[in-house]
């Protein structure tokens, strides 16, 4: 085999034991044929009582597991997942980062590519993994249900194709999340009703476990057991709702080898920054000897906004398996991890700028050299007036809003892709999303504008002919304070050409773009008080959501969609919808 055992070496988590058993079954049945195979899964959406932080609550799960079960596949495999909804909530599942080439009906965002799966109904997602290998993840894509509905997608290379780095001894999924004592649906409903900021989470988690720094959580600690001298591949996923995270392991250096299921030029680092929606594969080289100590693995937020946030730290423990010749009777010392300050934008930027594509013959970086259409999107927060006879808790008695080019995107009650495919777009959406800000201003200056109101709450799409080469500049604004925004594009990877602080300079900044080996991602952080430039080729027909992966910003309207038209050839057209596509 060209890849290592998928054994998540831990003894502290029922989730990890589930991954272990699933991995064993998967590995025993892994075919050696060069052609892709079809892998079938069933996701039963049901309620499960889970206890964290001294409190038991009923949460929405897949198959009663939290976090949810992993999807295992090889590059080139077809994945078929039947989702059956047994709860009262409407449900959709998004396969985050999967290209979904000509399978847009399976992308999953509610009211964009499908109507939700209602209680007692089912829907079968069907897609092929093309040109991707590494780690992605799946999660609910309706309201805030992804707080507990998420799990990893582990994509191995094709049979007999090795990793472009030394084969690791074992592989370990590590998913960061947020735990709320309260019902997250109640939290977002209250925030949208009052116009104020939402209540924040009560803990961060690693594989669903908060760790010993939280009340009643010593037993709920993720433990990674390693052998001296062995190399482990950690598959990191940030599934948190609203927080970018710094991550570090005490007294250990990590080597980054993959981002968003794309190999990168390896580089060493003491600290990882990972935004919601991003995945990062890193190599952990265990010490060559038994250290007679354990080591803290810690994650806490990187904070740029002015609102309240969960100022806590989740921890796990890296434990070395002692040789049989050593009998330890005393408690081992534990070394603490060092993380950057919460607002360390310099550390965040220095880490982000290290990413480069392999850009070699086997894994080329096919950056569009010529640009057909250029776009400039402002992204940031604003306000809407408080309705009459209503008390609002946003800035100066208003309601928080968020927008792209000052347009707060409003989802309809009909799926956009369905409306497009059936020719009913006139009453559902407009094809006139602004390519540039309607009213340009000093985007990152102090007190930039007196009026913070978002101009419109509409459903406008950008329409792209098939094959269009797109360059997009995304510019943060300081209308309500500068803030980092992790933007995720569905259905595509894009190349990150460059980034900077302040206002984008269209005359001088393009000369600094990396067109040789830029990193290829599906989620990128727009720097706080800055900009980022990306390019992609519109080679996948359908309607593709793009939104901030801070869930509260998406709820407030920081989202939009691209409509990519069919091409001329049969393999450039979107097939008809499946017969079991849910109806609104």
UniProtKB/TrEMBL annotation:
It is found in: Secreted, Extracellular space, Apoplast. PROSITE patterns: MULTICOPPER_OXIDASE1, MULTICOPPER_OXIDASE2. GO terms for biological process: lignin catabolic process. It comes from the Eukaryota. Coiled coil: none annotated. The keyword Metal-binding applies. Residues 47-158, 171-321, 440-566 form the Plastocyanin-like domain. The keyword Protein biosynthesis does not apply. GO terms for cellular component: apoplast. The chain crosses the membrane at residues 12-30. Keywords: Apoplast, Copper, Lignin degradation, Membrane, Metal-binding, Oxidoreductase, Repeat, Secreted, Transmembrane, Transmembrane helix. Its EC number is 1.10.3.2. One of its GO terms (molecular function) is copper ion binding. Lignin degradation and detoxification of lignin-derived products. Belongs to the multicopper oxidase family. NCBIfam families: laccase. This is Laccase. It comes from Papaver atlanticum.
């Amino acid at each position: 085999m060209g890849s290592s055992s998928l054994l998540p070496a831990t003894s502290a988590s029922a989730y990890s034991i589930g991954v272990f058993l699933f991995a064993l079954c998967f590995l025993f049945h892994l075919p050696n044929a060069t052609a892709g195979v079809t892998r079938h899964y069933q996701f039963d959406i049901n309620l499960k009582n889970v206890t964290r932080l001294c409190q038991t609550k009923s949460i929405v799960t897949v198959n009663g597991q939290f976090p949810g079960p992993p999807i295992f596949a090889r590059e080139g495999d077809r994945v078929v997942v039947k989702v059956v909804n047994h709860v009262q909530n409407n449900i959709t599942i998004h396969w985050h980062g999967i290209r979904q080439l000509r399978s847009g009906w399976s992308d999953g965002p509610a009211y964009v590519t499908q109507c939700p799966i209602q209680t007692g109904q089912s829907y079968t997602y069907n897609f092929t993994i093309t040109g991707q290998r590494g780690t992605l993840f799946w999660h609910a894509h309706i309201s805030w249900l992804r707080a507990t509905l998420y799990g990893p997608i582990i994509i191995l290379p094709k049979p007999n194709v090795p990793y472009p780095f030394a084969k690791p001894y074992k592989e370990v999924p590590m998913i960061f999340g947020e735990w709320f004592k309260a019902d997250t649906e109640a939290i977002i409903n209250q925030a949208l009703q009052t116009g104020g900021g939402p209540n924040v989470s009560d803990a961060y988690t690693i594989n669903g476990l908060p760790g010993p720094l939280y009340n009643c959580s010593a037993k709920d600690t993720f433990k990674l057991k390693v052998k001296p001298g062995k190399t482990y591949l950690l598959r990191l996923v940030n599934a948190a709702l609203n927080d970018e995270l710094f991550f570090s392991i005490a007294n250990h250096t990590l080597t980054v080898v993959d981002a968003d299921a794309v190999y990168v030029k390896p580089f060493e680092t003491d600290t990882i920054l990972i935004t919601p929606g991003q995945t990062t594969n890193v190599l952990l080289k265990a010490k060559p000897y038994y250290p007679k100590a354990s080591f803290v693995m810690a994650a806490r937020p990187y904070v740029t906004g002015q609102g309240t946030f969960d100022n806590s730290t989740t921890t796990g423990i890296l434990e070395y398996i002692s040789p049989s010749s050593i009998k330890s009777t005393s408690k081992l010392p534990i070394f603490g991890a060092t993380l950057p300050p919460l607002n360390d934008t310099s550390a965040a930027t220095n880490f982000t700028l290290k990413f480069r594509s392999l850009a070699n013959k086997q894994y080329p970086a096919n950056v569009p050299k010529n640009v057909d259409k250029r776009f400039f999107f402002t992204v940031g927060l604003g306000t809407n007036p408080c309705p009459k006879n209503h008390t609002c808790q946003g800035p100066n008695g208003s309601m928080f809003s968020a927008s792209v080019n000052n347009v707060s995107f409003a989802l309809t009650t009909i799926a956009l892709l369905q409306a497009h495919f059936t020719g009913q777009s006139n009453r559902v959406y407009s094809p006139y999303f602004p390519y540039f800000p309607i009213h340009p201003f000093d985007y990152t200056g102090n007190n930039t504008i007196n009026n913070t109101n978002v101009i419109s709450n509409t459903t406008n799409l950008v329409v792209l002919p098939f094959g269009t080469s797109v360059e997009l500049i995304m510019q943060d604004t300081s209308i309500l304070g500068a803030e980092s925004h992790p933007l995720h594009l569905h259905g595509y990877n894009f190349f990150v050409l460059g980034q900077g602080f302040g206002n984008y300079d269209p005359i001088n900044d393009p000369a600094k773009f990396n067109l040789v080996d830029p990193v290829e991602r599906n989620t990128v952080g727009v720097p706080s008080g800055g900009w980022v430039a990306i390019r992609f080729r519109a080679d996948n027909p359908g309607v593709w959501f793009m939104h901030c992966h801070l869930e509260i910003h998406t709820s407030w309207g920081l989202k939009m969609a691209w409509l990519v038209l069919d091409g001329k050839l049969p393999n450039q057209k979107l097939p008809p919808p499946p017969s079991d596509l849910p109806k609104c």
